[in-house]
Design brief:
Trna Endonuclease, Chain: A, domain 1; six-stranded mixed β-sheet; 3 helices; 6 strands
């Protein structure tokens, strides 16, 4: 599966920069992660402490301002971030983007910087266990598909 396969090239650039940033902090991301509620997280990661992170990538102002589904991601992560191009960063300061809950990452193809750290809202233990297992199985399946494409990512 291609990361953000139906997105514009700049979204791939932002995802790459975000992935590099989080990897340096031992949080490893996978792209396009379906959630049990029918939504799909652009990036989802697991940190060294077993905490789950979701990052929503936005590269167009209309898409950012028109997104009302992102609240549905909050039940599946300990920390939530917006990842945007430098031109969109100011828009994410609005109260509609829950700056007290959501973090903000500004990224390009080569790197990213956390402009606002996300607050932690710890998942319930049963939810964490289920989501961590789903994350691990999805990541393992994607690796296996590299050896045998018939094992490809299930939707």
């Amino acid at each position: 599966m291609d990361c953000l396969s139906d997105s514009p090239p700049v979204a791939l650039d932002v995802a790459r920069g975000v992935t590099r940033l989080f990897a340096r902090a031992s949080t490893f991301m996978i792209c396009e992660v379906p959630l049990p509620n029918g939504r799909r997280a652009d990036l989802m990661g697991l940190d060294a402490k077993g905490k789950l992170v979701i990052v929503e990538v936005k590269v167009a102002r209309a898409d950012l301002l028109g997104d009302s589904k992102w609240h549905d991601y909050l039940d599946y992560c300990d920390r939530f971030y917006w990842a945007v191009t430098p031109e969109l960063a100011a828009a994410c300061e609005d109260s509609a983007f829950l700056p007290e809950r959501s973090g903000l990452v500004v990224a390009d193809r080569y790197d990213a910087a956390i402009r606002r750290e996300a607050s932690e809202a710890a998942l319930a233990p049963a939810r964490r266990k289920a989501e961590t297992a789903r994350f691990a199985r999805r990541a393992a399946r994607r690796l296996a598909a590299g050896l045998d494409p018939s094992l490809g990512d299930e939707r």
